[in-house]
Amino acid sequence: EWLFQHLDDASRRKGELVKATQILSLDGFSLRMLNLKLVRWDANRKAESQDLYPQQQDKMLFVNSPKALLWAWTRVVRPLLPKRVAEKTQLIDTSRPAGLKALEKCCRLEGLPVFLGGSSSIPWPPDPNVLFPPLGPLTFGKDGTFVRYD
Questions:
Q1: For residue 132, what is the DSSP state?
Q2: Which ranges carry the CRAL-TRIO domain (predicted)?
Q3: Helix (H, G, I), strand (E, B) or coil at 55
Q4: CA 134 to CA 60: how far, in whole Å?
Q5: What are the pLDDT digits (tens) for 106-119?
Q6: CA proximity to 20, closest of 118, 123, 132
Q7: Is pTM beyond 0.90 here?
Q8: In this structure, are residues 11 and 135 in contact, taking their beta carbons and an 8 Å threshold?
Q9: pLDDT, tens digit, for every residue of 48-90?
Q10: Closest CA to 89 of 1, 21, 32, 4
């Protein structure tokens, strides 16, 4: 809900739809680390998010992935995915210039931390109060449930 409120606020300020691009580093990832319960839980949360806010998600990018995973993704996994999912999900090799160009199509490299392939010197993890200041007072409905930020 919080992310949707920020995207909605940014869309209103910009005058056009602003979408979220998620970037996840797979540095140090191995199949032994994969927890199927967590994967199912995450898939269910993403499905709920897509149902509630279909306009919110733009792309999901994975960087710093092992070479074997890049190979498997390109030749085995991606061809099996629905076209819409395959277009929104990318594994990017940031050690190659072509990978950095693909990443740059989605975001400015100077805004990304170094470990994600960018050149930003912002400390990680960042202070959320600095990056995402409060939007304003909360508005609650008659029954006391959260409605929106003013």
A1: S
A2: 1-124
A3: coil
A4: 26
A5: 888 887 888 888 88
A6: 132
A7: no
A8: no
A9: 776 666 667 778 888 888 888 888 888 888 888 888 778 888 8
A10: 21
Exposure class string for 132-141: b at 16+ Cβ within 10 A, else e: eeeeeeeeee
Q: Which two tokens stand for residue 42?
A: 């995450």
Name residue 127's amino acid: D
Q: Longest Cα pair distance anywhere in the chain, in angstroms?
A: 55
Half-sphere exposure of 90 (CA within 13 A, CB side): 19
Q: Output the six-digit token pair for 116.
A: 């994600």
- The three-state secondary structure class of 134 is coil
What's the full length of the chain, in residues? 150
Helix ranges (H only) for 15-138 are 36-52, 67-72, 78-80, 83-88, 97-106, 128-131
Which structural domains are found in the chain, ordered by start? Answer: 19-149 (3.40.525.10)
Q: What are the residues facing 125 on neighbouring strands?
A: none
